[in-house]
Design a protein that fits this description.
mainly alpha, 6 helices, globular
Length: 110
């Protein structure tokens, strides 16, 4: 969710095409959830090899630097404060434009 938001604000393009849903504990990409739900509370240690261009990698590293230090619980709190979250009904798609509008004033500059 945060990576998608940052990518939208930096490039005016989506980072990925899958929808982000509003679930009780935060935004969820169902395809990713389904792929890794068997991990339960354990960290994901392997992921498919994917080519990422330098600009995308830079943005993802910025997002990780800002949000990677927080617990899952705190990230839930953060997402529940966002306008895009508040204005989307449970189990519905959070519109990309709503995500972009929510984060357009807080581009990560390092």
């Amino acid at each position: 969710y945060f990576a998608q938001a940052e990518f939208l604000t930096q490039t005016n393009r989506a980072l990925f095409r899958e929808n982000i849903l509003r679930w009780d504990y935060g935004p969820v990409v169902k395809e990713v959830y389904d792929a890794y739900k068997s991990n339960q509370r354990f960290p994901i240690t392997e992921a498919p090899d994917t080519h990422i261009d330098t600009d995308t990698e830079y943005i993802l590293k910025k997002v990780y630097k800002k949000y990677g230090k927080y617990s899952a619980g705190y990230l839930v709190e953060l997402t529940h404060r966002e306008i895009a979250w508040k204005e989307t009904k449970k189990d519905e798609v959070i519109p990309l434009q709503a995500i972009k509008n929510t984060f357009s004033d807080c581009i990560l500059d390092f």
